[in-house]
Amino acid sequence: MPTASTVDRPVRVYADGIFDLFHSGHARALMQAKTLFPNSYLLVGVCSDDLTHKFKGFTVMNEAERYEALRHCRYVDEVIRDAPWTLTPEFLEKHKIDFVAHDDIPYSSAGSDDVYKHIKEAGMFVPTQRTEGISTSDIITRIVRDYDVYARRNLQRGYTAKELNVSFINEKKYRFQNQVDKMKEKVKNVEERSKEFVNRVEEKSHDLIQKWEEKSREFIGNFLELFGPDGAWKQMFQERSSRMLQALSPKQSPVSSPTRSRSPSRSPSPTFSWLPIKTSPPSSPKAASASISSMSEGDEDEK
């Protein structure tokens, strides 16, 4: 059997498995097998459904789906369909396999404690490391554990109870739980919207209060500037008061004003010519003519 140091062609490495629910653990194992040698050709054998169901159990993916999943893995150069459960010398010779890559844990199956025992004894076995925390069995366990959740989700997506192998009672229960979840979601959305509304109102209230404080300070400052102790209103009031006082109390005339010269011979006597003179009516025409003549004589004497 050729070794890696003697062959002048790519080293043909073989890895086999079921590869159900292809996941990152599978991909990492194939990556290790591909990078065992600088120049290698990786062949991956995939067992059929009949062989897998006989020796291991029921699979989630059928063989066609598992073949297709391996074909799209970047580390795989060739997929061998309907691979044997136990590797025979004829199979190794047919595919010109140099080394077999698999994890080193003994794989007991098909009446053997380790199906890779004879490969290890021939020096053709290269171990790979398993990825902890991920395996097909782990994924199936998660699905079984959360079966109700997945059943409800698929019912909501349009799958029938028969397709999901769900009883009539469980179907009604799941649909009722879906309705309850919808109501909870609506209530949650309303609460979130209410919180957003309250937050917006608080922000706007804060802005309004801040603007009101600024305006009030501006108003108070203008008021004090106008009506304060030294404000413009006081100065204007004082100016108007002084003008009113000047208008109400005009300047007095001078004391030494010239006087009219009067005649020294006669002192002035006020005449009240405008006052009416009360006279008794004459008792006869003769008396009236006598009074008129006496008044005329008096005037002539005065002149």
From TrEMBL:
Function: Catalyzes the key rate-limiting step in the CDP-choline pathway for phosphatidylcholine biosynthesis.
Residue intervals of the Cytidyltransferase-like domain: 14-142
EC supergroup of this enzyme: transferase
Keyword hit for Lipid biosynthesis: yes
Keyword Lipid metabolism: yes
EC number: 2.7.7.15
Coiled coil ranges: 173-200
A Pfam family hit: CTP_transf_like
Entry-linked NCBIfam families: cyt_tran_rel (TIGR00125)
InterPro entries, per the entry: CCT (IPR041723), Cyt_trans-like (IPR004821), Pcy1-like (IPR045049), Rossmann-like_a/b/a_fold (IPR014729)
GO MF, any single term: nucleotidyltransferase activity
Protein name: choline-phosphate cytidylyltransferase
